[in-house]
Write a structure and sequence with these properties.
Largest sheet of chain A: 7 strands, mixed
Low-confidence stretches of chain B: none
Oligomer: heterodimer
Mean pLDDT of chain A: 93
Distance between the termini of chain A: 36 Å
Helix content of chain A: under 10%
Order of helices and strands of chain A: EEEEEEEEEEE
Number of strands of chain B: 11
Number of helices of chain B: 0
Structural class of chain B: mainly beta
Mean pLDDT of chain B: 90
Chain lengths: ~110, ~110
């Protein structure tokens, strides 16, 4: 069965650079979520989209923005990267809200 | 902010034994989900239990939910070495976002 696809899987950036992470949800899933997991930490919710509209917002820095496109894929844009942004970034998708969220393999971002 | 508190933080048992992990939360929930994560890898969805359910089974997994005590437990029976992972509970709050607990690191010794 198709799963959530994230790209790239690994990304290395310098401080103050920008990064774009992509997420392709499971086909027919209309809701996308982004989470950040620091080393040894639990995942923290960043932002979600339902039917291409922002649905909920968590602890997402102002330097980050995201959107969901007409084909339901989503992109997380991160600017002015800081060392503390180094983390695993997970995308998850679900069919409608209130159902199981299926996670992608994550993008490991390293900021040097 | 953290919603769930997991107990224990780490658990080490022998293969074949049962493993029980507990999760407590603070606010009203729509559902509670359990996930498994191997070191540095993705989160694998294990089971979802809705707020109006008390118990749910899936293979060797048994999840209970007590909304009066705001707690849930995950039981893995007849553990295997491949069950070694971190286990997270996550509660879904009103607007769908998942709030994760700190996780339990489970080690199954052969």
């Amino acid at each position: 069965a198709a799963g959530v696809i994230q790209s790239p899987r690994h990304l290395i950036k310098e401080k103050r650079e920008t990064a774009t992470l992509k997420c392709y949800p499971i086909p027919r899933h209309d809701t996308v979520y982004w989470y950040q997991q620091g080393p040894g930490q639990d995942p923290q919710f960043l932002i979600s989209f339902y039917e291409k509209m922002q649905s909920d917002k968590g602890s997402i820095p102002d330097r980050f923005s995201a959107q969901q496109f007409s084909d339901y894929h989503s992109e997380l844009n991160m600017s002015s990267l800081e060392l503390g942004d180094s983390a695993l970034y997970f995308c998850a998708s679900s069919l409608n809200r209130g159902n199981e969220q299926f996670f992608g393999p994550g993008t490991r971002l390293t900021v040097l | 902010s953290q919603q769930g508190e997991e107990d224990p933080q780490a658990l080490s048992i022998q293969e074949g034994e049962n493993a029980t992990m507990n999760c407590s939360y603070k606010t009203s929930i729509n559902n509670l989900q359990w996930y498994r994560q191997n070191s540095g890898r993705g989160l694998v969805h294990l089971i979802l239990i809705r707020s109006n359910e008390r118990e749910k089974h899936s293979g060797r997994l048994r999840v209970t939910l007590d909304t009066s005590k705001k707690s849930s437990s995950l039981l893995i029976t007849a553990s295997r070495a491949a069950d070694t992972a971190s286990y997270f509970c996550a509660t879904e709050e009103g607007a769908q976002k998942l709030v994760f607990g700190q996780g339990t690191r489970l080690t199954i010794n052969p």
